[in-house]
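Two proteins were folded this term; both appear here.
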Amino acid sequence: MSLTTTESAHSVPATVDRLIAALGRRGITVFARIDHAAGARQAGLELADEELVIFRDPWAGGLFMERDGASGYELTLGLLIWDATGQTLIG
Protein backbone atom coordinates (compact mmCIF):
# COMPACT_ATOMS: atom_id res chain seq x y z
CA MET A 1 0.00 0.00 0.00
CA SER A 2 1.33 3.45 -0.83
CA LEU A 3 0.62 6.68 1.00
CA THR A 4 -1.12 9.39 -1.00
CA THR A 5 0.19 12.83 -0.08
CA THR A 6 -0.61 16.44 -0.79
CA GLU A 7 1.22 19.62 0.12
CA SER A 8 0.03 22.32 2.48
CA ALA A 9 1.00 25.97 2.24
CA HIS A 10 0.85 26.21 6.05
CA SER A 11 3.02 24.96 8.91
CA VAL A 12 2.28 21.59 10.46
CA PRO A 13 0.47 23.05 13.53
CA ALA A 14 -1.54 25.48 11.38
CA THR A 15 -2.46 22.72 8.92
CA VAL A 16 -3.64 20.49 11.77
CA ASP A 17 -5.68 23.35 13.25
CA ARG A 18 -7.30 24.00 9.87
CA LEU A 19 -7.99 20.30 9.35
CA ILE A 20 -9.64 19.92 12.76
CA ALA A 21 -11.77 23.02 12.14
CA ALA A 22 -12.88 21.70 8.74
CA LEU A 23 -13.78 18.30 10.20
CA GLY A 24 -15.75 19.99 12.98
CA ARG A 25 -17.75 22.06 10.48
CA ARG A 26 -18.79 18.78 8.85
CA GLY A 27 -19.80 17.15 12.13
CA ILE A 28 -16.92 14.69 12.04
CA THR A 29 -15.58 13.64 15.43
CA VAL A 30 -11.86 14.12 16.12
CA PHE A 31 -10.75 11.48 18.60
CA ALA A 32 -7.09 12.41 18.94
CA ARG A 33 -4.39 14.85 17.91
CA ILE A 34 -1.08 13.12 18.50
CA ASP A 35 2.06 15.25 18.39
CA HIS A 36 4.82 12.78 17.46
CA ALA A 37 7.53 15.48 17.59
CA ALA A 38 6.60 16.46 21.15
CA GLY A 39 6.72 12.81 22.19
CA ALA A 40 10.13 12.43 20.59
CA ARG A 41 11.43 15.53 22.43
CA GLN A 42 10.23 14.07 25.74
CA ALA A 43 12.29 10.97 24.94
CA GLY A 44 15.36 13.09 24.20
CA LEU A 45 15.08 12.72 20.43
CA GLU A 46 14.85 15.37 17.72
CA LEU A 47 12.02 15.01 15.22
CA ALA A 48 10.66 17.54 12.75
CA ASP A 49 7.05 18.62 13.31
CA GLU A 50 4.74 15.65 12.81
CA GLU A 51 1.16 15.17 14.02
CA LEU A 52 -1.45 12.47 13.53
CA VAL A 53 -5.17 13.31 13.56
CA ILE A 54 -7.57 10.41 14.19
CA PHE A 55 -11.23 10.96 13.29
CA ARG A 56 -14.51 9.33 12.18
CA ASP A 57 -17.94 10.34 10.97
CA PRO A 58 -20.11 9.21 13.91
CA TRP A 59 -23.25 8.69 11.82
CA ALA A 60 -21.75 6.70 8.95
CA GLY A 61 -19.46 4.68 11.18
CA GLY A 62 -22.22 4.04 13.68
CA LEU A 63 -24.38 2.37 11.03
CA PHE A 64 -21.68 -0.19 10.31
CA MET A 65 -20.85 -0.76 13.96
CA GLU A 66 -24.52 -1.40 14.80
CA ARG A 67 -24.29 -4.42 12.51
CA ASP A 68 -20.78 -5.52 13.45
CA GLY A 69 -18.98 -3.97 16.40
CA ALA A 70 -15.62 -5.24 15.15
CA SER A 71 -15.92 -2.96 12.11
CA GLY A 72 -14.93 -0.05 14.37
CA TYR A 73 -11.35 -1.18 13.95
CA GLU A 74 -11.43 -0.36 10.24
CA LEU A 75 -13.67 2.72 10.30
CA THR A 76 -11.43 5.10 12.20
CA LEU A 77 -9.53 7.34 9.81
CA GLY A 78 -6.27 9.17 10.25
CA LEU A 79 -4.20 11.81 8.51
CA LEU A 80 -0.52 12.35 9.15
CA ILE A 81 0.79 15.90 8.76
CA TRP A 82 4.56 16.33 8.78
CA ASP A 83 7.42 18.62 7.87
CA ALA A 84 9.43 17.12 5.02
CA THR A 85 12.51 19.35 4.97
CA GLY A 86 10.53 22.57 5.05
CA GLN A 87 7.45 21.46 3.12
CA THR A 88 4.31 20.47 5.04
CA LEU A 89 2.84 17.22 3.70
CA ILE A 90 -0.50 15.56 4.44
CA GLY A 91 -0.87 11.83 3.98
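Next, the second protein.
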Amino acid sequence: MDFRRVYDRRRSASDRWLIVYACENGLPHRRLGMSVSRKVGPAVVRNRLRRLYREAFRLTRDRLPPGLDIVVIPQGPDEPSLDQLKDSLPRLLGQIARKLGKRT
Protein backbone atom coordinates (compact mmCIF):
# COMPACT_ATOMS: atom_id res chain seq x y z
CA MET A 1 0.00 0.00 0.00
CA ASP A 2 1.19 3.49 -0.82
CA PHE A 3 0.66 5.71 2.22
CA ARG A 4 1.44 8.91 0.29
CA ARG A 5 -1.37 8.20 -2.20
CA VAL A 6 -3.83 7.76 0.67
CA TYR A 7 -2.70 10.97 2.37
CA ASP A 8 -2.76 12.93 -0.92
CA ARG A 9 -6.40 11.95 -1.51
CA ARG A 10 -7.23 14.00 1.64
CA ARG A 11 -10.25 12.02 2.74
CA SER A 12 -10.24 11.57 6.49
CA ALA A 13 -12.40 11.35 9.56
CA SER A 14 -11.49 11.31 13.23
CA ASP A 15 -12.78 10.94 16.75
CA ARG A 16 -11.28 10.78 20.21
CA TRP A 17 -9.37 7.56 19.51
CA LEU A 18 -8.16 7.63 15.93
CA ILE A 19 -7.70 9.45 12.67
CA VAL A 20 -8.61 7.44 9.57
CA TYR A 21 -7.50 8.26 6.03
CA ALA A 22 -8.80 6.28 3.07
CA CYS A 23 -8.85 6.18 -0.71
CA GLU A 24 -9.98 3.76 -3.42
CA ASN A 25 -7.57 0.96 -4.29
CA GLY A 26 -9.26 -0.63 -7.32
CA LEU A 27 -9.28 -4.02 -5.59
CA PRO A 28 -12.21 -6.06 -4.26
CA HIS A 29 -10.78 -6.02 -0.72
CA ARG A 30 -9.64 -3.55 1.93
CA ARG A 31 -6.03 -2.94 2.92
CA LEU A 32 -4.97 -1.60 6.31
CA GLY A 33 -1.92 0.45 7.16
CA MET A 34 -1.03 1.97 10.50
CA SER A 35 1.12 4.92 11.41
CA VAL A 36 2.01 5.05 15.09
CA SER A 37 4.34 7.89 16.04
CA ARG A 38 7.06 7.65 18.67
CA LYS A 39 5.22 10.46 20.43
CA VAL A 40 2.64 7.86 21.46
CA GLY A 41 5.16 6.10 23.67
CA PRO A 42 7.83 3.43 23.74
CA ALA A 43 7.80 0.45 21.40
CA VAL A 44 5.79 -1.69 23.82
CA VAL A 45 2.94 0.85 23.85
CA ARG A 46 3.07 1.42 20.08
CA ASN A 47 2.99 -2.31 19.35
CA ARG A 48 0.09 -2.84 21.76
CA LEU A 49 -1.91 -0.13 19.96
CA ARG A 50 -1.09 -1.69 16.57
CA ARG A 51 -2.33 -5.09 17.74
CA LEU A 52 -5.49 -3.56 19.19
CA TYR A 53 -6.30 -1.57 16.02
CA ARG A 54 -5.52 -4.57 13.79
CA GLU A 55 -7.90 -6.74 15.84
CA ALA A 56 -10.67 -4.13 15.61
CA PHE A 57 -10.17 -4.08 11.82
CA ARG A 58 -10.33 -7.89 11.66
CA LEU A 59 -13.51 -8.07 13.73
CA THR A 60 -15.34 -5.32 11.80
CA ARG A 61 -14.15 -6.22 8.28
CA ASP A 62 -17.64 -7.28 7.16
CA ARG A 63 -19.05 -3.87 8.18
CA LEU A 64 -16.41 -1.86 6.27
CA PRO A 65 -16.75 -0.67 2.66
CA PRO A 66 -14.71 -2.79 0.21
CA GLY A 67 -12.06 -1.50 -2.17
CA LEU A 68 -10.34 0.94 0.16
CA ASP A 69 -6.79 1.51 1.33
CA ILE A 70 -7.06 2.59 4.95
CA VAL A 71 -4.48 4.30 7.14
CA VAL A 72 -5.21 4.41 10.87
CA ILE A 73 -3.40 6.81 13.21
CA PRO A 74 -3.94 6.68 16.99
CA GLN A 75 -4.92 10.06 18.50
CA GLY A 76 -2.80 9.64 21.61
CA PRO A 77 -1.26 7.26 24.10
CA ASP A 78 -4.58 6.48 25.80
CA GLU A 79 -5.64 2.95 25.00
CA PRO A 80 -9.27 2.59 23.92
CA SER A 81 -11.20 -0.57 24.57
CA LEU A 82 -11.71 -3.02 21.74
CA ASP A 83 -15.46 -2.31 21.83
CA GLN A 84 -14.86 1.42 21.42
CA LEU A 85 -12.69 0.76 18.37
CA LYS A 86 -15.21 -1.70 16.93
CA ASP A 87 -17.82 1.08 17.05
CA SER A 88 -15.51 3.85 15.91
CA LEU A 89 -13.78 2.28 12.89
CA PRO A 90 -16.90 1.38 10.83
CA ARG A 91 -18.52 4.73 11.64
CA LEU A 92 -15.47 6.74 10.53
CA LEU A 93 -14.96 4.65 7.40
CA GLY A 94 -18.64 5.07 6.56
CA GLN A 95 -18.15 8.85 6.70
CA ILE A 96 -15.14 8.63 4.38
CA ALA A 97 -16.92 6.26 2.00
CA ARG A 98 -19.73 8.81 1.65
CA LYS A 99 -17.14 11.48 0.83
CA LEU A 100 -15.64 9.17 -1.77
CA GLY A 101 -19.07 8.26 -3.17
CA LYS A 102 -18.76 4.55 -2.31
CA ARG A 103 -21.59 2.36 -1.09
CA THR A 104 -21.23 1.01 2.44
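Residues 38 and 46 are 8 Å apart (CA to CA). The mean pLDDT is 89. These notes refer to the second protein only.
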